[in-house]
Amino acid sequence: MPELPEVETVRIALARELQGRRIVKTRVHDSRLRFGVDVPRIETLLNDREVVQVRRRAKYLLVNLAGDDVVLLHLGMSGRLLFREPQVAREIHDHVVFTLDDLRELRFNDPRRFGMLDMFPRSEESHHPRLVHLGVEPLTSGFTAESMRRLARRSRRPIKNFLMDASKVVGIGNIYASEALFMAGVHPMRAAGRIGLERWVRLVSSVKTVLGDAITRGGTTLRDFVDTGGERGVYGERLQVYGNAGLSCPRDDGGTIRRVVMLGRSTYYCPRCQR
DNA sequence: CGGGCGGCCTGGAGGC
DNA sequence: TGCCTCCAGGCCGCCC
Q1: Is residue A106 pLDDT above 80, yes or no?
Q2: C-alpha closest to that of A5 among A142, A175, A140, A257
Q3: What is the CA radius of gyration of chain A?
Q4: For A78-98, how does the pLDDT look when each residue is reduced to its tens digit (9 = 90+)?
Q5: Distance of A255 CA from C11 C1′ (whole Å)
Q6: Which residues lie near nucleic chain B, judged by CB under 7 A?
Protein backbone atom coordinates (compact mmCIF):
# COMPACT_ATOMS: atom_id res chain seq x y z
CA MET A 1 0.00 0.00 0.00
CA PRO A 2 2.09 2.95 1.04
CA GLU A 3 4.96 3.78 -1.24
CA LEU A 4 7.82 6.15 -0.45
CA PRO A 5 5.73 9.38 -0.37
CA GLU A 6 3.15 7.91 2.01
CA VAL A 7 5.84 6.52 4.33
CA GLU A 8 7.70 9.83 4.21
CA THR A 9 4.46 11.67 5.06
CA VAL A 10 4.14 9.47 8.14
CA ARG A 11 7.81 9.93 8.99
CA ILE A 12 7.53 13.72 8.97
CA ALA A 13 4.58 13.59 11.37
CA LEU A 14 6.27 11.08 13.64
CA ALA A 15 9.44 13.15 13.75
CA ARG A 16 7.45 16.23 14.72
CA GLU A 17 5.36 14.45 17.34
CA LEU A 18 7.79 11.95 18.81
CA GLN A 19 11.25 13.47 18.82
CA GLY A 20 12.13 14.36 22.39
CA ARG A 21 9.12 12.49 23.77
CA ARG A 22 9.20 9.25 25.69
CA ILE A 23 7.39 6.03 24.94
CA VAL A 24 6.32 5.11 28.46
CA LYS A 25 4.63 1.79 27.64
CA THR A 26 4.07 -0.57 24.72
CA ARG A 27 1.35 -3.18 24.43
CA VAL A 28 1.17 -5.75 21.65
CA HIS A 29 -2.42 -6.93 21.26
CA ASP A 30 -1.83 -9.09 18.20
CA SER A 31 1.63 -10.37 17.40
CA ARG A 32 0.64 -11.91 14.07
CA LEU A 33 2.22 -9.29 11.84
CA ARG A 34 4.67 -10.26 9.11
CA PHE A 35 7.44 -12.41 10.68
CA GLY A 36 5.58 -12.19 14.00
CA VAL A 37 6.30 -9.70 16.78
CA ASP A 38 8.62 -10.76 19.61
CA VAL A 39 6.17 -9.63 22.28
CA PRO A 40 8.24 -10.09 25.46
CA ARG A 41 11.21 -8.32 23.92
CA ILE A 42 9.21 -5.41 22.50
CA GLU A 43 7.10 -4.88 25.61
CA THR A 44 10.11 -5.09 27.91
CA LEU A 45 12.54 -3.00 25.88
CA LEU A 46 10.10 -0.43 24.46
CA ASN A 47 9.21 0.85 27.86
CA ASP A 48 10.23 4.28 29.21
CA ARG A 49 12.41 5.09 26.19
CA GLU A 50 13.18 8.49 24.72
CA VAL A 51 12.77 8.97 20.95
CA VAL A 52 15.79 10.73 19.49
CA GLN A 53 15.10 10.66 15.77
CA VAL A 54 12.69 9.20 13.20
CA ARG A 55 14.21 8.14 9.89
CA ARG A 56 13.07 6.38 6.72
CA ARG A 57 14.90 3.81 4.61
CA ALA A 58 12.98 2.65 1.54
CA LYS A 59 9.45 2.03 2.84
CA TYR A 60 10.68 1.29 6.37
CA LEU A 61 10.43 3.65 9.32
CA LEU A 62 13.31 3.62 11.79
CA VAL A 63 12.87 5.14 15.24
CA ASN A 64 16.12 5.84 17.08
CA LEU A 65 15.88 5.56 20.85
CA ALA A 66 18.22 7.00 23.44
CA GLY A 67 20.37 4.07 24.48
CA ASP A 68 21.13 3.14 20.86
CA ASP A 69 18.24 0.87 20.04
CA VAL A 70 16.23 1.13 16.81
CA VAL A 71 12.56 0.32 16.25
CA LEU A 72 11.84 -0.86 12.70
CA LEU A 73 8.32 -0.49 11.30
CA HIS A 74 6.80 -1.34 7.95
CA LEU A 75 3.22 -0.44 7.01
CA GLY A 76 2.82 -3.29 4.53
CA MET A 77 -0.27 -2.80 2.36
CA SER A 78 -2.78 -1.53 4.88
CA GLY A 79 -0.81 -0.36 7.94
CA ARG A 80 -1.56 2.95 9.68
CA LEU A 81 0.01 4.78 12.59
CA LEU A 82 -2.56 6.95 14.34
CA PHE A 83 -2.33 9.30 17.31
CA ARG A 84 -5.28 8.80 19.64
CA GLU A 85 -6.40 10.11 22.99
CA PRO A 86 -6.31 7.29 25.56
CA GLN A 87 -10.06 7.42 26.22
CA VAL A 88 -10.81 6.56 22.58
CA ALA A 89 -11.67 2.88 22.45
CA ARG A 90 -9.18 0.61 20.75
CA GLU A 91 -10.38 -0.35 17.28
CA ILE A 92 -10.32 -3.68 15.56
CA HIS A 93 -6.84 -4.22 14.02
CA ASP A 94 -5.14 -1.85 16.49
CA HIS A 95 -2.40 -4.42 16.98
CA VAL A 96 0.19 -2.39 18.87
CA VAL A 97 -0.33 0.59 21.19
CA PHE A 98 2.52 2.87 22.22
CA THR A 99 1.69 5.15 25.16
CA LEU A 100 3.53 8.47 25.15
CA ASP A 101 4.63 10.66 28.03
CA ASP A 102 1.93 13.23 27.15
CA LEU A 103 -0.54 10.37 27.67
CA ARG A 104 -1.53 10.23 24.03
CA GLU A 105 -1.25 6.91 22.29
CA LEU A 106 0.27 5.97 18.94
CA ARG A 107 -1.55 2.97 17.54
CA PHE A 108 -0.39 0.63 14.83
CA ASN A 109 -3.48 -0.52 12.92
CA ASP A 110 -3.15 -3.02 10.08
CA PRO A 111 -6.14 -5.05 8.81
CA ARG A 112 -4.15 -7.22 6.42
CA ARG A 113 -1.22 -7.68 8.82
CA PHE A 114 1.42 -7.38 6.09
CA GLY A 115 3.17 -4.79 8.23
CA MET A 116 6.06 -5.56 10.56
CA LEU A 117 7.60 -4.42 13.82
CA ASP A 118 11.07 -5.24 15.07
CA MET A 119 13.62 -3.77 17.45
CA PHE A 120 17.39 -4.22 17.64
CA PRO A 121 20.62 -2.48 18.77
CA ARG A 122 21.78 0.21 16.39
CA SER A 123 24.96 -1.73 15.69
CA GLU A 124 22.87 -4.41 13.97
CA GLU A 125 21.10 -2.03 11.60
CA SER A 126 23.61 -2.26 8.77
CA HIS A 127 23.22 -6.02 8.44
CA HIS A 128 19.56 -6.38 9.33
CA PRO A 129 18.07 -8.94 6.90
CA ARG A 130 15.22 -6.60 5.91
CA LEU A 131 17.57 -3.70 5.11
CA VAL A 132 20.79 -5.21 3.85
CA HIS A 133 19.76 -5.83 0.23
CA LEU A 134 18.13 -2.43 -0.38
CA GLY A 135 19.18 -0.30 -3.34
CA VAL A 136 19.67 3.44 -3.71
CA GLU A 137 17.30 6.07 -2.28
CA PRO A 138 15.67 7.87 -5.22
CA LEU A 139 15.64 11.29 -3.54
CA THR A 140 19.38 11.33 -2.93
CA SER A 141 22.27 12.40 -5.14
CA GLY A 142 23.26 8.74 -5.51
CA PHE A 143 20.26 8.15 -7.79
CA THR A 144 21.64 9.16 -11.17
CA ALA A 145 21.02 8.30 -14.82
CA GLU A 146 24.56 6.96 -15.12
CA SER A 147 24.29 4.60 -12.14
CA MET A 148 20.88 3.32 -13.21
CA ARG A 149 22.00 2.70 -16.74
CA ARG A 150 24.95 0.72 -15.42
CA LEU A 151 22.69 -1.34 -13.12
CA ALA A 152 20.25 -2.06 -15.94
CA ARG A 153 22.93 -2.98 -18.45
CA ARG A 154 22.02 -6.22 -20.25
CA SER A 155 18.75 -6.55 -18.31
CA ARG A 156 15.91 -7.63 -20.59
CA ARG A 157 13.14 -7.22 -18.04
CA PRO A 158 10.58 -4.44 -18.54
CA ILE A 159 11.62 -1.07 -17.14
CA LYS A 160 8.55 -0.92 -14.90
CA ASN A 161 9.58 -4.13 -13.15
CA PHE A 162 13.13 -2.83 -12.85
CA LEU A 163 11.95 0.43 -11.23
CA MET A 164 9.90 -1.55 -8.70
CA ASP A 165 12.85 -3.79 -7.75
CA ALA A 166 13.95 -2.56 -4.32
CA SER A 167 17.38 -4.11 -4.70
CA LYS A 168 18.01 -1.55 -7.47
CA VAL A 169 16.14 1.57 -6.33
CA VAL A 170 13.79 1.71 -3.34
CA GLY A 171 10.43 3.25 -2.62
CA ILE A 172 8.82 3.12 -6.08
CA GLY A 173 5.65 1.04 -5.92
CA ASN A 174 2.95 0.33 -8.43
CA ILE A 175 1.33 3.78 -8.61
CA TYR A 176 4.43 5.94 -8.90
CA ALA A 177 6.12 3.57 -11.36
CA SER A 178 3.30 4.18 -13.88
CA GLU A 179 3.28 7.91 -13.17
CA ALA A 180 7.06 8.38 -13.53
CA LEU A 181 7.15 6.38 -16.76
CA PHE A 182 4.35 8.52 -18.17
CA MET A 183 6.10 11.75 -17.19
CA ALA A 184 9.31 10.54 -18.83
CA GLY A 185 7.52 9.29 -21.95
CA VAL A 186 8.92 5.77 -21.55
CA HIS A 187 6.89 2.65 -22.36
CA PRO A 188 6.56 0.43 -19.25
CA MET A 189 7.45 -2.71 -21.20
CA ARG A 190 10.62 -1.37 -22.78
CA ALA A 191 13.59 -3.54 -21.80
CA ALA A 192 15.56 -1.85 -19.01
CA GLY A 193 18.86 -2.60 -20.73
CA ARG A 194 17.72 -0.88 -23.88
CA ILE A 195 17.22 2.53 -22.32
CA GLY A 196 19.84 5.03 -23.34
CA LEU A 197 21.41 7.70 -21.16
CA GLU A 198 19.15 10.45 -22.41
CA ARG A 199 16.02 8.51 -21.47
CA TRP A 200 17.51 7.60 -18.11
CA VAL A 201 18.09 11.29 -17.46
CA ARG A 202 14.39 11.94 -18.07
CA LEU A 203 13.34 8.90 -16.05
CA VAL A 204 15.49 9.69 -13.02
CA SER A 205 14.26 13.27 -13.08
CA SER A 206 10.63 12.14 -13.41
CA VAL A 207 10.94 9.73 -10.47
CA LYS A 208 12.33 12.52 -8.30
CA THR A 209 9.62 14.96 -9.39
CA VAL A 210 6.72 12.54 -8.96
CA LEU A 211 7.87 11.33 -5.53
CA GLY A 212 8.71 14.86 -4.37
CA ASP A 213 5.35 16.29 -5.48
CA ALA A 214 3.52 13.39 -3.87
CA ILE A 215 5.29 14.04 -0.55
CA THR A 216 4.29 17.71 -0.80
CA ARG A 217 0.65 16.61 -1.09
CA GLY A 218 0.75 14.09 1.72
CA GLY A 219 0.86 11.07 -0.58
CA THR A 220 -1.89 9.31 -2.49
CA THR A 221 -5.00 7.87 -0.86
CA LEU A 222 -6.72 5.40 -3.13
CA ARG A 223 -8.35 3.41 -0.41
CA ASP A 224 -6.63 2.83 2.92
CA PHE A 225 -3.82 5.28 3.40
CA VAL A 226 -4.15 8.05 5.98
CA ASP A 227 -1.50 10.02 7.85
CA THR A 228 -1.02 9.95 11.64
CA GLY A 229 -3.90 12.38 12.06
CA GLY A 230 -6.27 10.28 9.94
CA GLU A 231 -6.04 12.69 6.96
CA ARG A 232 -6.02 11.47 3.38
CA GLY A 233 -3.23 12.32 0.94
CA VAL A 234 -4.30 14.47 -2.02
CA TYR A 235 -1.79 13.50 -4.71
CA GLY A 236 -4.55 11.31 -6.18
CA GLU A 237 -5.93 14.35 -7.98
CA ARG A 238 -2.57 14.75 -9.72
CA LEU A 239 -2.36 11.21 -11.07
CA GLN A 240 -2.02 11.36 -14.85
CA VAL A 241 -2.49 7.74 -15.87
CA TYR A 242 -2.90 5.50 -12.82
CA GLY A 243 -6.47 4.23 -12.63
CA ASN A 244 -7.46 6.18 -15.76
CA ALA A 245 -7.79 3.41 -18.34
CA GLY A 246 -10.02 4.43 -21.25
CA LEU A 247 -9.57 8.18 -20.71
CA SER A 248 -7.70 10.25 -23.22
CA CYS A 249 -4.06 11.02 -22.55
CA PRO A 250 -3.54 14.21 -20.48
CA ARG A 251 -1.06 15.32 -23.13
CA ASP A 252 -3.99 15.53 -25.55
CA ASP A 253 -2.04 13.66 -28.17
CA GLY A 254 -5.01 11.57 -29.28
CA GLY A 255 -3.84 8.54 -27.29
CA THR A 256 -6.08 6.56 -24.93
CA ILE A 257 -4.72 5.35 -21.61
CA ARG A 258 -4.37 1.58 -21.49
CA ARG A 259 -4.32 -0.81 -18.59
CA VAL A 260 -2.18 -3.92 -18.81
CA VAL A 261 -1.07 -6.36 -16.11
CA MET A 262 2.64 -6.71 -15.39
CA LEU A 263 3.88 -9.01 -12.62
CA GLY A 264 0.25 -9.30 -11.64
CA ARG A 265 -0.09 -5.55 -11.08
CA SER A 266 -2.18 -3.02 -12.96
CA THR A 267 -0.04 -0.85 -15.20
CA TYR A 268 -1.26 2.28 -16.97
CA TYR A 269 0.29 4.10 -19.91
CA CYS A 270 -0.41 6.05 -23.07
CA PRO A 271 0.70 4.03 -26.11
CA ARG A 272 0.97 7.24 -28.13
CA CYS A 273 3.53 9.19 -26.11
CA GLN A 274 5.29 6.42 -24.19
CA ARG A 275 7.77 4.58 -26.37
C1' DC B 1 21.45 -16.47 -10.80
C1' DG B 2 18.26 -12.91 -12.33
C1' DG B 3 13.78 -12.54 -12.02
C1' DG B 4 8.86 -14.38 -12.34
C1' DC B 5 5.36 -16.05 -9.41
C1' DG B 6 2.64 -17.87 -5.42
C1' DG B 7 1.25 -16.77 -1.13
C1' DC B 8 0.44 -14.17 2.92
C1' DC B 9 -4.22 -11.46 4.92
C1' DT B 10 -8.66 -8.67 5.22
C1' DG B 11 -12.15 -5.87 3.33
C1' DG B 12 -14.53 -3.36 -0.22
C1' DA B 13 -16.74 -3.35 -4.76
C1' DG B 14 -19.44 -5.28 -8.11
C1' DG B 15 -22.17 -9.12 -10.28
C1' DC B 16 -26.04 -12.08 -9.77
C1' DT C 1 -30.26 -8.91 1.61
C1' DG C 2 -26.67 -12.51 0.78
C1' DC C 3 -23.10 -14.95 -1.49
C1' DC C 4 -19.47 -15.23 -4.65
C1' DT C 5 -15.46 -13.53 -7.16
C1' DC C 6 -12.11 -10.24 -7.96
C1' DC C 7 -9.00 -6.76 -6.67
C1' DA C 8 -5.80 -3.87 -3.74
C1' DG C 9 -0.38 0.68 -3.04
C1' DG C 10 4.44 -4.94 -0.54
C1' DC C 11 7.63 -8.24 -0.25
C1' DC C 12 9.59 -12.86 1.02
C1' DG C 13 10.99 -17.23 -0.54
C1' DC C 14 10.75 -20.72 -3.86
C1' DC C 15 11.98 -22.37 -8.18
C1' DC C 16 12.79 -22.05 -13.17
Answers
A1: yes
A2: A175
A3: 20
A4: 999 999 999 999 999 999 999
A5: 34
A6: A 32, 77-78, 92-93, 111-114, 155-158, 161, 165, 192, 223, 263-264
